[in-house]
Amino acid sequence: VQLQASGGGLVQAGGSLRLSCAASGRPVSSYAMGWFRQAPGKEREFVSAISWGGGSTRYADSVKGRFTVSRDNAKNTVCLQMNSLKPEDTAVYYCGAADRSSWPLNSRGIDAWGKGTQVTVSS
């Protein structure tokens, strides 16, 4: 599967962005999907994940209540709605696909990564 993340940009603190991850090559329904981010000088960290059918979701404590992950298997896309953004959310955001049995999902289970999209939150 090939993944392409989009929707990043520059936003003021308190604002919102919606990231999308488009899949091609194989149906995204075959995969559990995750969002990760990497800030300058830091390691890539888990942000959110959604099971292959969409019935289960997980969030990092730092984004709970502000971010919402969703998927539309018919459109082969996964989205991350990010509200109440903070400067510390600034990072390159990546989507990743893992075998549907890889739950709960973490970076070690990712089989395919998309190119990242930059999110910058100004104070």
Write structural notes for this entry.
By secondary structure, the chain is mainly beta. Helix content is 0%, strand content 53%. It contains no helices and 11 strands. Strands 2, 4, 5, 6, 9, 10 and 11 form a 7-stranded mixed beta sheet that branches. It has a 4-stranded antiparallel beta sheet with strand order 1-3-8-7, with no helix packed on it. Strand 7 and strand 8 form a beta hairpin. It is globular, with a radius of gyration of 13 Å. The model has no long low-confidence stretch (mean pLDDT 95).
Keywords:
123 residues; mainly beta; seven-stranded mixed beta sheet; four-stranded antiparallel beta sheet; globular
Strand content: over 45%
Q: Quick check: average pLDDT? A: 95
* Helical content (DSSP H or I, runs of 4+): under 10%
Shape: globular
String of helices and strands: EEEEEEEEEEE
By secondary-structure content and strand pairing, the structural class works out as mainly beta
End-to-end Cα distance: 37 Å
| Strand segment tally | 11
Radius of gyration, in angstroms, nearest whole number: 13 Å
Q: Report the total helices.
A: 0
Low-confidence stretches: none
Main sheet properties: 7 strands, mixed
